Amino acid sequence: MAKLSSQIVQARPTRTQRLIQRRETISQNEEANRQINEAYKRLNQAKNLDEYSQIYNSLSPLQQSAFPSPEQLKSNQEKERQQTIKEIDKRIEQSNKKIS
């Protein structure tokens, strides 16, 4: 009967192979981060939602996942507007009470 160690197929990569794989992964991550940083700069230069949409749609799916979609931005802007309107209405009511 053969030894158990000889019966088990060793699928584990060698240390050198693991180091090479780790370096490749690190370089891929660095490249992805560099691309996302470039996309961030381009998106920050957009002057309105239409420009943002055009730039956003030109990005790769990986890059798009790092940024809010134009629809999300639009809904966030609308929420902020509604909150601002409510705050202004409260201030107007308060100032009207003080005047009365």
What's the N-to-C terminus distance? 102 Å
The overall number of domains is: 2
- Main sheet, how many strands, which sense, barrel? none
Poorly predicted parts: none
H and E order: HHHHH
The helical percent reads over 70%
The geometry reads as elongated
Count of β-strands: 0
Mean pLDDT: 89
| Estimated radius of gyration | 27 Å
Q: In terms of structural class, how would the helical and strand content be classed?
A: mainly alpha
The number of distinct helices, counting runs of at least 4 residues, comes to 5
Q: Give the amount of beta strand, in percent.
A: under 5%
Give your account of this protein's structure:
This protein folds into two domains: 55 residues; 32 residues. Helix 2 packs antiparallel against helix 3. Helix content is 78%, strand content 0%. The protein has 100 residues and is mainly alpha-helical. It has five helices and no strands.
What would the keywords be for this entry?
elongated, 5 helices, 100 residues, 2 domains, mainly alpha
Write the layout of secondary structure elements.
Elements: H1 4-7, H2 15-44, H3 49-58, H4 61-64, H5 70-99
Helix pairs in contact: 2-3
What would you say about this model in short?
α2 runs antiparallel to α3 (49-58). Helices cover 78% and strands 0% of the residues. It has 100 residues and is mostly helical.
